[in-house]
TrEMBL record:
Role played: Catalyzes the hydrolysis of S-inosyl-L-homocysteine (SIH) to L-homocysteine (Hcy) and inosine. Likely functions in a S-adenosyl-L-methionine (SAM) recycling pathway from S-adenosyl-L-homocysteine (SAH) produced from SAM-dependent methylation reactions. Can also catalyze the reverse reaction in vitro, i.e. the synthesis of SIH from Hcy and inosine.
Name this polypeptide is given: S-inosyl-L-homocysteine hydrolase
Lineage: Archaea, Methanobacteriati, Methanobacteriota, Stenosarchaea group, Methanomicrobia
Keyword terms: Cytoplasm, Hydrolase, NAD, One-carbon metabolism
GO MF: adenosylhomocysteinase activity; trialkylsulfonium hydrolase activity
Names of required cofactors: NAD(+)
HAMAP family: AdoHcyase
Presence of the UniProt keyword NAD in the record: yes
Localization, UniProt: Cytoplasm
Binding site for substrate: T54, D125, E150, K180, D184
Domain S-adenosyl-L-homocysteine hydrolase NAD binding: 185-346
Pathway: Amino-acid biosynthesis; S-adenosyl-L-methionine biosynthesis
BP GO annotations: one-carbon metabolic process; S-adenosylmethionine biosynthetic process; S-adenosylmethionine cycle
Amino acid sequence: MKDYVVKDIKMAKQGAERIEWARRHMPVLNYIKEEFQKTKPLKGVNVIACLHVTVETANLISTLQAGGANVALTASNPLSTQDDVAAALAKGGVKVYAIRGENEKQYYENIESALKIKPNVTLDDGADVIATVHSKHPEYLKGIYGGCEETTTGVIRLRAMAADGALKYPVIAVNDAETKMMFDNRYGTGQSTLHGIINATNILLAGKNVVVVGYGWCGRGVAMRAKGMGSNVIVVEVSPRKALEAAMDGFRVMDMKQAAKEGDLFITVTGDVSVIRKEHFKLMKDQAIVCNSGHFNVEIDLEDLGKMAKKVNEVKTDVMEYVLDDGRRIYVLAEGRLVNLACAFGHPPEVMDMSFANQALSVKHIVENHKKLKNEVYKVPEAIDNRVAKMKLETMGISIEKLTKEQEKYLSSWSMGT
């Protein structure tokens, strides 16, 4: 088993400096790390992490190691790896297998290499490790206590597996913790998506018609931030309730065919396949920009677009130009992959502080309780979610109100009346 596969181990110093900068903005995770160093709740536990290899992830890995875990890390997306971070982790003794721009074959080879740690706990961002174990390596199942899943797309996959009786070990849906979903997905995705788009294109967002496809927590965040930058935001949604919410939030809501005619910039955040496809490309303006901030690169049907194009050019880094038969040009960012990670740095450390605090405490929960857990998808225990929120407030210097005994009695009683 190779100790690591990275682009250039000489990049380690730069990566270490960036990891340290992020650490200073992740106070909750730092607190948990200090606690783990004292109590060693993960002593001897083998953990495989298939996550975006970023400075924030590096601090999660360091926290798990402080708790006594042996960790192998591989990328959850071919374009999200920060090569200097991978080098710094490898230099620090982590078994890391990740190179930015790796092809599909290399991507799965790296997962295979990381799996040789013989994991007791799996951490996923998209459920690729869980899928690989279930489909190719059932021999590892007996040693796995449980896993955690970080993103909406992965949770959807795992709930489908559980419903079919195919899930062979318990998984905690870290994505569904309120201190993850409401903050990471909304504020993290909202800010980092626009950061990626601006990095790749340097376009002015003010005055643009920005079409946000999907109005979950990620879509809410993107729409909110685009509106704040002066964009005219259009929301495309399939859920009547979410569409109604978007309308009440002040956004124009319409179907994709109508939006395709009006949009200057399209951002997909649905977790579903082919939400922008041939029938929509036919209607788009010249020089429309299309990008994705959902986990997998399936939301924009690039196969359709490729067949429609008479010429495809890379006009600048991370920007592909598709020239159609009628001369219209459609620009696709980051090959339809996560634009916030491929073209920028991903979520800010302040929001990943909460997400990865949930991850670390959920790993501890799995190790301590795995014998009681069934092969189901669990929510993060409410006590963990509340603890993370409380710690975050404390690090921000915010105090909150407490119920009096009279108030507690009133809320728990049916007999006190009005």
